[in-house]
Fold:
Amino acid sequence: MIRKIDKKTVSDALHTAYDRCKTESGGKNADYIPYLKNVPSTLFGIAACLPDGSLLTVGDTDFRFGIESVSKVPTALLAMEQYSDREVLHKIGADATGLPFNSIMAILLENDHPSTPLVNAGAITACSMIKPVGDSTGKWKSIIDFLTALAGSTVEVIDDLYRSESDTNFNNRSIAWLLKNYNRIYDDPMMALDLYTRQCSIGVTASQLATVAATIANGGMNPRTRKRVFRAELTPRIVSLMATVGFYEHTGDWLFETGLPAKSGVGGGILGVVPGVMGVAAFAPPLDAAGNSVKAQKALACIARELDLNLFGTTRCTLAEPVPTEA
Ligand code: GLU
Structure:
């Protein structure tokens, strides 16, 4: 069944989700990165970006927060764009580890590949692959330019967050060296780690995340700038990775409840992609025990229900608005 929806229906769903979830008080800010502990816990925003480029927002959608693990999505895409989806599958993999995102055990168990670019080990390997190999400045430019193109607006590192992460990322340092031990790192390990730490420290708004999500939903053409950012065939690849591991060890529960492929980060942001339909994002700092924003999860689950966004459902929602062509 096809359900045609319009901008107003989407906007109403965002407001309904906001009103239902705004008093939710569960969870607490991540505290293993000191900067994140001090982000105001009451911030809450939801945004959707549609294929015609319109941005619908409610709440704190202009607040810049740490992108954290959501950054693994653009860098995985960039690695697939620079190499190929096959090569990323071969060098990293696409399986959920079933273990926490920063698990050392997962690397020991699967030492033939890091499993998926959406957990720390695979993301550090992805950073090591980014071209130009051996050139930290050039690699960083590739990463930040790619995210800027996906978001359609400037993004930059939050320096205090970067310092805070760099001073405390001992577990990730162990991961980088362990990957080196298993020949699963393709550049200097500490350079790859630093790039990973820097990309996690990039500040984004919920509106920017929704635009990134919409660019993915739109097959790589940013609906706001109308510029092509990556090859259309990579959308199903990255969406499948998000579906299998986007919510850490709770990914199965999330997919069971919502059928919405999404990726969360410990900064409190979540990016959700409905291929061919829209990108959605929500942000609220307090997290559950696995590291997913409590309020943002509830809000996106509510929107998924209201708009029939479940990819496994029998109703397919489409937008009535005409879609502009590539610039
Ligand atoms: N920078 C964080 C870390 O590596 C990101 C974790 C996350 O958002 O899942 O621990």
Observations:
- Residues 68-69, 101-102, 120, 165, 172, 200, 265-266, 291 surround glutamic acid (CB under 6 Å).
- Residues 69-200 form a domain with the Beta-lactamase fold (CATH 3.40.710.10).
- The two ends are 32 Å apart (CA to CA).
